Amino acid sequence: MRQQASPSGELGVVALAARPVAFSETIGLFMPAEGQAVADVGVLFVSPWGLEEMCLRKFWRIIADDLSIRGIASLRFDYPGTGDALDRSDFSGGLAIWDDAVVAAAERLAALSGCSRVVVVAQGLGTVVALRTIRRIDGVAGFVALAPVASGRAYLREMQIWAKMVEEGLGIAKEHRAAEGVVIAGLPMPEEIAADIRKFGLASLEEKPAPQCLVMKRPDRPSDTEFAAKLVALGAAVAEADYQGYDDLVSNPATAVMPQAVRLALVDWITKLASAFPQKRDKPVPETAAAVLHGPGFREEALTFGEGGRLYGVLCEPLGDRKGATVLLVGTAYDRAAGWARSGVRLARDLAAQGIPSLRFDTANVADSPPVPGLPDQVLYHEAQSNDVRAAVDVIEERHLLPVVTSGRCSGAYLAFRSALQDARIRGVVAVNPFVFYWDSKRDIDESLRFVPRTLGDYKGRLLQAETFQRLLQGRIDVARAATNIGRALGRRLARHAMPLIHMLPQNRVMRREVVGAFHKLSDRGVPVALLYSENDVGLDHFAEQFGSSAKGLRRYKNVNFTILQGADHNLTPEPARLSYFDTLSAVATALDPQP
Fold first, then answer.
1. Fewest beta carbons within 10 Å, which of 171, 319, 329, 569?
2. 421 vs 426: CA distance, rounded Å
């Protein structure tokens, strides 16, 4: 059990991570109702797609926990071909494939909770899918639409604009950007799905989705008001509220701000609706079956682990003979374990095809793993995250899958590297674009996440691009901040040439001692360390400060391999960069002998 502040401010007690369940080629997370007063109403979450879904993942979990405290069970899940669900090569069925998953999820919610009524909560594209399927769901008592889609065609146009902004922000080279279709940061939407979305409009709605509806509107989107008016015209009792903080929630998973006012309004509205129905008398018998999916060459089990089951992860094992070490995939920032553009899922299943097991998971207070009481809300670069890695290694040991190779990107690379220093069961490290190798606890993490300057080389390349001048003329560049960041990058570049003097400064002595000591320790243990950096990645500045821009300082460590990935962005969006990462990880893992 754990403690968490409930929406009204009082401290409540809820279960730990939600219970994974498998159905219809996907994974769902069921959060049972807690307490003696259990409502006869369950909540089904219907998610948006792409980057918006990743940003919303943690918010869904927080709301599910809040509802559990108030005696209301819930279920959230991934559409086929998204998140932790199985992949599909055939989407000829179009949006009906996702429709069927929603109906199956509603049936699963009813079976797991014993509830006879359901409230459907949807955001973004999820509102389209929910409206298409809600008539097929028994006992719908309410419908909540957050940032609803009123026109599928307009939604896709907006998505393509958003995708270009994301690609531009990530610095993805033009030759690696999608030339056609709906693709955001390397995640493609199946064209058959997009084709059906284009057909959706408010005119297609012929009956109210539920007797009671709540619409959370973005103040700057007139279409949200039109959406609410349409539900009223269809005869629904509609409550409206402002979606305060929408942009801060969906812009970036690493910096997403949970909209507390929306959280409060949403949970209170559902609680009030549920109180109008008699409570359930009997609780259903808990399901104990493992949440297992089988794909070509792999078996995946979604599970909870750690003290009382506080962490959520997915163990992916090959169906054939096992080879080498098990790879522990450590997530980046607040991205869910499935990874940016499902990179974690793809990597795990590709490794299984080579006979290599893996475990991907969410650390505490990230995506589907709840926080640890008493720890700060900002968990990135906090030493407590090593406890989460240790718990994950414990699972691997319990399954007789030692030794372990840890791997991650950016903050995940940092955690993978630091955890290897503390746990002898970790026998290899593959770190991709680590920002630092040692974190000064006095440093402001939020400031670093929001305003990380690029390398000087990256700024130089961008200044020569025509689109940079266009953005400048349109007033889309914060000139003052850009100038400040370029100044910082220039300062770091100059500092490289004065490394001996820089290392003597009091504030840098601790950093130098910690970094050198860490590399010496792994070298003495014979732990192979592969460092992969994208060309012009900001982490190269810290690396150069410690080892020189030519990596001269690494020569003393025979266990370390250093590689620059040409043309790659920080997230390894281009396929060649991902393949290089996979090849390196596979080589490090297979070089180790599996323990029986």
1. 319
2. 8
Looking only at the bridges linking them, the beta strands covering 404-409 and 326-330 are parallel
Which of 415, 423, 478 is closest to 450 using CA atoms? 478
Rounded distance, CA 216 to CA 266, Å? Answer: 9
Q: 431: helix, coil or strand?
A: strand
Which structure tokens are listed for 528? Answer: 């192979």
Cβ atoms of residues 562 and 554 within 8 Å: yes
Amino acid at 34: E
The residues, any chain, with a CB within 8 Å of residue 432's CB and separated by 6 or more, are 407, 408, 409, 410, 412, 413, 532, 533, 572, 581
Amino acid, single-letter form, for residue 590: T
- Label residue 325 left, alpha or beta by phi (over 0 means left) and psi (-120 to 50 means alpha): beta
Convert the pLDDT of each residue in 473-527 to its tens digit.
445 444 455 444 444 544 545 444 555 545 555 567 888 899 999 999 999 999 9
Q: What is the DSSP string of 324-354?
A: SPEEEEEPPTT--TT-GGGHHHHHHHHHHHT
pLDDT tens-digit series, residues 79-112:
999 999 999 999 999 999 999 999 999 999 999 9
Q: How far is CA 360 from CA 345, 357, 363, 512, 520, in A?
A: 8, 10, 10, 31, 28
